Amino acid sequence: MPNGVLEVIIVEGRRLKDKDAIGQSDPFIEIYTDKKYKQRTTTIQNSNDPVWNERFTFNIHSGDDTIHFDVYDSDVAGKDSIGNGKVKLKHVFDDGKFDEWVKLPAHFGLSVHGEVHVIMNFRPS
Predict the structure, then answer these.
(1) What is the pLDDT of residue 38?
(2) Per residue in 52-70, is it b (16+ CB within 10 Å) or e — as a string?
(3) What's this model's pTM, rounded to 2 decimal places?
(4) Which run of H or E residues covers position 94?
C-alpha cells in the first residue's frame, strides 16, 4: 500500500439504529486505521439522521489497508455501539477518491444499523 495523506470527511448518517429508550440517539463516530490512533466526531444530540460535515486527516503507512468507522450512542454512563463499518483503502488508492454510503451491518450481516456518508481523498507522498 502506498504512503500518503488520507483526507476523510464524515458528511452525515441516516437511519442509525436507536439505542435510547426515550428520544433518539446521541451519535458520534470513532475513525481509525490503527486502534492506537483514533479520531472522533462531535456528538450530535438527539438524532438518528445526524449531519457532521467534519474533516479528518490520516497519515497512511504501508500496512494500513482498512479504515474503520465505529458509530456510538453517547450516554451518561459511557457509550453504546450502534454499528461498525469499514472500507478497504484499496478502493480509495485506486481512484484517489471515495464518496459513498458505508453500511453499518448488524451481527452476521443480516440487517443494517444505518449508514454513514463518507468522502475520502488520498494524496500519495
Answers:
(1) 97
(2) beeebebebeeebeebbbb
(3) 0.94
(4) helix 90-95
